[in-house]
User: What shape does this take?
Amino acid sequence: MSVVLLGYPIWWVLGLAYFVPLMVAVPMAWQLFQSQRIEMPRGFGWWMLFLVWMAGGVFLLSADAPGAVPGGADTGRLLVFGLRASMYVSSSIVLLWVVNIDRRSLSVRRYSHLFGFLFIFTTVGGLIGMTWPEISLASPLEMMLPGSLANNSYVSSLVHLDVADVQSVLGDPEPRPTMPFAYANTWGSVMSLTLPFFLVSWFKFGRTWQRVLAPVVLAAAAVPIVYSLNRGLWFSLAIGAVILIALQLRTGRPTVIAATVVVGAAVMVALLLSPLSSLVQERFEYQHSNERRSQLLVATIESTALGSPLAGFGSTRDVQGSFASIAGGSTPDCPACGVPPLGTQGQLWTVILSQGFVGLALFSAFFLTVLSWVWRCRSLADALCLFLLTFFGLQLFVYDTIGVPLYTVMATIGLAWRERRHNLSVSSSSLSSHTLERVLHRVHRCLPAILVATIVGGTAGLATAASQPTRFSASADILLAPTPRYLATPRVTIRGSPTRSPSTLRPRWCSRNKHWNGFPIPIPRQIYTICVIASKSRRHRILLFSPFRCARTRLGRLRKCWSCCPPPIWTREATICNSDVNRSSPA
Assistant: This one.
């Protein structure tokens, strides 16, 4: 684990940050295999069932989901499924490894130091992303990948080095820090999940200089936390503060309670008096992403309920067009016009679409079972696990938490169970044994019934699918309209010049536009979209270029906008001078 966390800056520079936890899981699994007894936390059986259910999703990757783009069962989808499955498995291995490792090799103190270091590096990455958001480099691993893999959007996001994601959340382009992760939401999730370990490491177990510098580090971390515009991160920290006050009240120590309240009040006052308060207020006023998230949520649930409610579709699916039109989608001028794939924008929705509602039940049963034995906070490890489960449960609805967030939560669950087992053994209390051998023995006893149920269920499913006709199909037609004849050679009257046909006009340099207008010089497409505008008198005006000057001609009310696609012939010859245009009239 030290190799993964202390070497994370190096792995990120090399493009291996996502894959090192997967590689380190191999020696961990070998070490577990050589041990005679493998302890498991209570409720881990639910997680094992979820892994088995998740693995069966590989046979559903070729299925078409309602509302999604049909087809696409290629190696790219299989690769994404393999990466997600490997992260599930590696997180399970690290949980079992932490449970069974000796306490002297990985104490709570050392564990807190490791994840506290990750919090510091994430803070540094946030500050770099705010200061130099334009940094974007190809990692050595990305350079060595073949083109088929490097061009995969999911793989590219994992191996490419970006320090920030520039988005127009509040209307203007603003950098949202991502370093050292692929997405801004992952950065916010890791910040909240590693903050408790930093506080324990530097305040409880730290030296004098660490206790002195800890407020400085927290103040520096507050800046990228606010500028990240991560509402999930803000809500997690607010709920964490409430839990901390509740735990302090339970201890009944007035000094600690008063200190906690004073520090919290000072932080709030400093935030309100700083320029960051206006940024927070604007973020809550402009919640434009809520509508798209809710539409994606509804589409994900409907697609799963109609297509494969029990087992899901194995992985995410691309949406057909956009929520406004089946022909919609992202463009270079409007990247936000596209719709994220079904099953994204929240790990909960990923589980629903990929593993169905049965997978969701198994997934939730495991974490709820863990919550049932840590909520009393009998030890420091239990308290840390409670914080992480609370943050994780909130972020399941808004963040894709697979990766480092899931890795952190699973390892902390293993730490909490190991400390719980140690404390109960010291107090001579009875603790039921949960070992992998017992689980496998029970599975072996029930194996015939499991095989019979699997065969019967698979046969019934195939028979049902074969008896039903195809319910979902898609087709695409492209209609190329000819140029409108009534717009071919209009005659217009230009002030100060005789009536003439636009075909007699010639290209000329327009000093007000600073570019050539007219045939045969190509005109940018955006010029066509502003050929007709509405004046204050509610009369439409067309801007034309004459050989003598840029003249403005009123043609009265027009019932059709002449900015159609393909553009009319006359707009190529008698071109448009758009220097006075302040608002376009869409076609």
